[in-house]
Design a protein that fits this description.
Blueprint: H1 18-29, E1 37-40, H2 50-65, E2 69-74, H3 84-96, E3 105-107, H4 112-124, E4 128-131, H5 135-141, H6 159-171, E5 180-183, E6 198-202, E7 216-218, H7 220-230, E8 235-239, H8 246-256, E9 265-269, E10 272-274, H9 281-289, H10 304-310, H11 314-324, E11 331-333, H12 335-349, E12 352-353, E13 355-356, E14 359-364, E15 373-378, E16 388-393, E17 396-400, E18 420-423, E19 428-436, E20 442-450, E21 467-469, E22 472-473, E23 478-485, E24 510-517, E25 529-532, E26 536-540, E27 551-556
Helix pairs in contact: 2-11, 7-8, 11-12
Bound molecules: adenosine-5'-triphosphate and magnesium ion (MG).
């Protein structure tokens, strides 16, 4: 079954993929009695990024479409790196994307007791043992991809002794690293993950939820499958790098048998790789901590907090996740695909406004000094029901500096000496003169206007001119800060092939300009999106927008060209 996407964009309904096929087959065969439960399991050790959005949309989207539920579970087994700040930001990002976990908010740490009991059970069954070797010694015996490992001399430690040591590990008798608990599987397995993996380690550290209650913490592979099973997850979706861990996932649950409520199916899919970004949490943390960007929500970052601040909408990101689909093969997605999704959303849903980003004065010599008249601009060219707004016209205007060329190049149809253009929603004007300062820079452009050509009046449109440029009245324009962003990296694959991604940071990725916007924009609410005609899609900055000092970020240009003011 497929459900129509909740966006109001004219997009395909959620496309099928191999995971949906598995679920539909399970529903047909009755494997889970029609139950569909998924989970999104972030580790709270950083902010979420656009790659996580793929996983969120997949897991929550499947639950939505098959009448199931999706859990939000914090995989919090590494207390050194985890923090409440990250938990909060993750909850915030998932809700912002439009998904609701309802009652289903869980933490792996909720299961520490059960995980511990199961570990004792494994020891009891002869399926786990306490290891005395150091981490280095364990590594030495582990073997390689081409050579089998060797059994540890402690592998056949008596069960009672392992049990005793494990209990004493728990009570804090030993320092970090003195012992670990290992699953007893097969040191000759071709899969290194099955060579007696460590499942518990000693860490005398405070945990953000369990405090100092524990000084032993379970490892990811052991924790994840049991958490899934305890939550009665049906389909445990994860990225491809966990494919080699699936035998371990299954092994642990097979040992526990009916001690856990079910045995979920792990299914792997390809992670999202997006050009011109880095997505590893370690690198994102490095960028933030070394102040190479302005915090976790820097609009140039691929964090969800960052793309949100930049002006990406949840709808655009959900559309992106649907478009790129789900597959088993790793690939790269071009940043342009994400941007196109935003254009598609905002073209449909963002009201139009006018901003002059790089102003130069235009004086209409034959326009009366004190006259002002109303021009009417549609809020959306395809949606007359959105109405029109007034843009006051007067003698002295701002236009874009780039909309004038003293010596026009071939194919330039905007303003030039002796040339006529239409001022959008107003009159046809003709350039008659240019004022320059001592350095030869243009200070003002003089025009005459034709009063019979006002847009919207009978016959006004009969005279055609090639250029059509936007403008604002100097007297009514509102000063605004506008932030233009470019790619954070100059290299589409900043961290591939062992390169140091920091060497390809784009030093011109942020530009702050003093611009003018139309007066109504003082009422823009933080996070409201607009198309500034001919200049791109902008959002009122969620942190800094104020009615007396409007601040807008350019999310994306109108067409697929990057950031430069001249690109229109
Ligand atoms: P790290 O950057 O340290 O590798 P992580 O991305 O694995 O961290 P988790 O918190 O473990 O971070 O990720 C939560 C979930 O999001 C996991 O199920 C993971 O598979 C998925 N995920 C992470 N990155 C991507 C990505 N680029 N594309 C799709 N899913 C992803
Ligand atoms: Mg991970």
């Amino acid at each position: 079954m497929k459900e129509k996407s909740e966006t109001n964009l004219h997009i395909e309904s959620t496309p099928s993929n191999f995971i949906r096929n598995i679920i539909e087959e399970d529903n047909r065969s009755g494997k889970w009695n029609g139950r569909v439960e998924t989970r999104f399991p972030p580790e709270p050790n950083g902010y979420l990024h656009i790659g996580h959005a793929k996983s969120i949309c997949l897991n929550f989207g499947i639950a939505r479409d098959y009448g199931g539920v999706c859990h939000l579970r914090f995989d919090d087994t590494n207390p050194e790196k985890e923090a409440q700040e990250y938990v909060d930001s993750i909850c915030d990002s998932v809700s912002w994307l439009g998904f609701d976990w309802g009652q289903h908010l869980y933490y792996s740490s909720d299961y520490f007791n059960q995980l511990y009991q199961f570990a004792e059970y494994l020891i009891d069954c002869g399926k786990a043992y306490v290891e005395s070797l150091s981490a280095d010694e364990i590594r030495e015996l582990r073997g390689t991809l081409t050579h089998p490992g060797k059994n540890s001399p402690f592998r056949d430690r008596p069960i009672a002794e392992s049990l005793d040591l494990f209990r004493r590990m728990k009570t804090g008798e030993f320092p970090d690293g003195q012992y670990v608990l290992r699953a007893k599987i097969d040191m000759a397995s071709p899969n290194i993950n099955m060579r007696d993996p460590v499942i518990y380690r000693i860490r005398h550290v405070h945990h953000q939820r369990t405090g100092n209650q524990w000084c032993i913490y379970p490892m990811y592979d052991y924790t994840h499958c049991i958490s899934d099973a305890l939550e009665r997850i049906t389909h445990s979706l994860c990225t491809l790098e966990f494919e080699d861990h699936r035998p371990l996932y299954d092994w642990v649950l097979d040992q526990l048998g009916d001690k856990v409520p079910c045995h979920p199916q792990q299914i792997e899919f390809a992670r999202l790789n997006l050009t011109y970004t880095v997505m590893s949490k370690r690198k994102l943390i490095e960028l933030v901590e070394n102040k190479l960007v302005d915090g976790w929500d820097d609009p140039r970052l691929s964090t969800l907090a960052g793309v949100r601040r930049r002006g990406f909408t949840p709808r655009a990101i959900r559309l992106f996740a649907e478009r790129i689909g789900i597959s088993k093969a790793d690939s790269w997605i071009d940043m342009g695909v994400l941007e196109d999704c935003l254009r598609e959303d905002l073209n449909e849903n963002a009201p139009r406004r006018i901003a002059v980003l790089k102003p130069v004065k235009l004086i209409i010599d034959n326009y009366p000094e004190n006259l002002q008249e109303d021009c009417f601009a549609p809020n959306h060219p395809q949606k007359p029901e959105w109405g029109k707004r007034i843009i006051p016209f007067s003698k002295i205007l701002y236009i874009e500096r780039d909309d004038f060329m003293e010596v026009p190049t071939k194919g330039y149809f905007r303003l030039a000496p002796g040339v006529e253009v239409r001022l959008r929603y107003a009159f046809i004007v003709k350039c008659v003169q240019v004022d320059k300062n001592a350095q030869g820079d243009i200070e003002a452009i003089h025009c005459t206007y034709d009063p019979d050509t006002k847009s919207g009046t009978p016959g006004a449109e009969s005279r055609k001119v090639k250029g059509n440029i936007h403008w604002l009245s100097v007297k009514y324009a509102l000063a605004a800060e506008i932030r233009l962003y470019d790619r954070l990296f100059t290299d589409p694959y900043p961290d591939s092939g062992g390169k140091d991604y920091k060497t390809s940071l784009n030093s011109n990725s942020k530009q702050i300009i003093a611009a003018y916007v139309e007066p109504s924009l003082c009422e823009a609410k933080p996070e409201q999106s607009f198309q500034f005609e001919r200049n791109g899609y902008f959002i009122a900055d969620r942190m800094d927008m104020r009615s007396d000092k409007p601040v807008f970020n350019r999310a994306v240009t109108l067409r697929d060209s990057w950031g430069k003011l001249t690109d229109k």
